Automatic annotation (TrEMBL):
<dbReference type="InterPro" id="IPR005475">
    <property type="entry name" value="Transketolase-like_Pyr-bd"/>
</dbReference>
<dbReference type="InterPro" id="IPR005474">
    <property type="entry name" value="Transketolase_N"/>
</dbReference>
<dbReference type="InterPro" id="IPR033248">
    <property type="entry name" value="Transketolase_C"/>
</dbReference>
<dbReference type="InterPro" id="IPR009014">
    <property type="entry name" value="Transketo_C/PFOR_II"/>
</dbReference>
<dbReference type="GO" id="GO:0005737">
    <property type="term" value="C:cytoplasm"/>
</dbReference>
<dbReference type="Pfam" id="PF02780">
    <property type="entry name" value="Transketolase_C"/>
</dbReference>
<dbReference type="Pfam" id="PF02779">
    <property type="entry name" value="Transket_pyr"/>
</dbReference>
<feature type="domain" description="Transketolase-like pyrimidine-binding">
    <location>
        <begin position="318"/>
        <end position="491"/>
    </location>
</feature>
<dbReference type="InterPro" id="IPR051157">
    <property type="entry name" value="PDH/Transketolase"/>
</dbReference>
<dbReference type="Pfam" id="PF00456">
    <property type="entry name" value="Transketolase_N"/>
</dbReference>
<protein>
    <submittedName>
        <fullName>Transketolase</fullName>
    </submittedName>
</protein>
<comment type="similarity">
    <text>Belongs to the transketolase family.</text>
</comment>
<dbReference type="InterPro" id="IPR029061">
    <property type="entry name" value="THDP-binding"/>
</dbReference>
Amino acid sequence: MTATGATFPIDLGAYQKLTLDPTVPTLTADQKAALQANIQLCRDAIVFFTATGAAHGVGGHTGGPYDTVPEVMILDALFRGKPESFVPIFFDEAGHRVGTQYLMATLNGDLPAEQLMSYRLAHSKLPGHPELGLTPGVKFSSGRLGHMWPYVNGVAFANPGKTVFCLGSDGSQQEGNDAEAARLAVAQHLNVKLIIDDNDVTIAGHPSKYLPGYSVKRTLEGHGLKVLEVNGEDIDALYAAICEAVNTPGPIAVICKRPMCPGIEGLEGSNHGHDVISVKLALQYLESRGHSAAVAHLNGIQKPKQDYTFLGISDKWDSNRNVFGDAVNGMLAKMSETERKEKVLVVDSDLEGSCGLKKIHDAYPEVFIPSGIMERGNLSAAAGFGMEQGKQGIFATFAAFLEMCISEITMARLNYSNLLCHFSHSGIDDMADNTCHFGINNFFADNGLDDGYDTKLYFPADANQMKACVEAIFFDPGLRFIFSTRSKTPILLDSSGNELYGGNYTFVPGKDEVVREGTAGYIVAVGDAVYRALDAVERLKQEGLDVGLINKSTLNVIDEDAMAKIGKSPFVMVVEAFNRRTGLGSRFGSWLLERGYTPKFAYYGTHEEGCGGLWEQFPHQGIDPVGIIDKVKKLV
């Protein structure tokens, strides 16, 4: 899983540790030549080691760190010239640009270059967003997109007289956090300098097309910032603008206009450059640059595979997040175009391809709103559309961002909205982005009072149940939250080997599903923990321990019949990928006690920061089949 024994095939020792003085805003010929050489070296290195993520199957992001190399090289030289004048940290609110942090940690001697070839692999300590305290040389945790500028304002308060930089992007600037940060920075005359990569690209497309009228420059000027706009690939102009920003007190933004992935054939100007470069294009790029050893290393990488054979499942695996879009389309197909436009509004947040919404966009564009990285506002817009009886809004994003929308969810509830939310990337499976992108606090969506407006949380266990769930609840009033995982999940089988949720199965909201009967006790599992628990149950039965399994697909409704059944059994064990502090297990024991049931009880979920990688996250938390079997044996 690691690149132990391999030598980093690009000579990072060629990096020239340049020193620049911001009071001299022009570059000498030698300084410019050194900068240009450093830029090319670092861009080559970023293409290579991020491409190892593509080759290993763990993904990653190439375009962001590749784009911003010129400004990072300049900042590095400035930090070296007058360290006492700066907070020498490359704060970056586009956390997926983590390649920048890893490369600079390597150039500064904190991280072995060879470790870069394990980019995003499990246990490599190189997750998809920077995490303070995990990776040597990384000096901050970025969290999610658009969250750093407010934090950097506080760093500026703590370091009066010093200049603090925050690298940004046109995508991160769409988040509402930055509007608030801008107002505070201007009001308090904070010495924060923003350097913004404005390449008109986000995941789903081009902001100039899906948000016409949006301008980073005009937005920041409207908040009162001085803004300098330059061609980010013009080194002389970029350096002069950064020097002007440093020499001018107060908050200033330097906006770097450039295409995405300049100079990379096949990616330049494309939104595909936002994610990891394909191995094919990386090989093409590296060959053109003469990096034969890097090419050989990429060609020699074999993608790690999970070789565990799960019991109780079919050979078919499917992506519930995409099945959601198919299922919604099935319901929309039953309406006329006029009815669809009158009754349904689907609002995206730049993640349509990741949440199944692209299928809706392609089939029924008349009900689809492509929107930016503005989760709070987009959820509220969908909820507002669903305020009137007979209408409903549909909204989707990653589950990690649910935490950002709690207030808006409350507003939707207080206004009796009809809102169907799909939060994909729930739990921890396949999360090479790691801890900050875990979707583990989904129960926060159920934040109303007992007598409040109806809210239900659903987590279908496979594609068949996802389709049935959408069909059953699509026209229900109230707030409905459907969760899915980033990873594919297998089709579950019953004890006779037939599809558990196939045929004439009908999803019943609030009903807990008995997957396997058992006399020794019951495991209650959620979402993608169900098939892992099913494997554990099948293996335990083979050993003579007759354990049953419950799929609790409606998370926040108590099924009294199921509760009586399992409450009278010898033990109950809850298994989930949600946060152990806030998930189902944290309340299930109370539900049992309130009804007078006292079986042996235990609950297991996500309780540690992530290990990176993909399926490795489950065994890291001890909730894979091996971990489940071990815990059951200790409980009985």
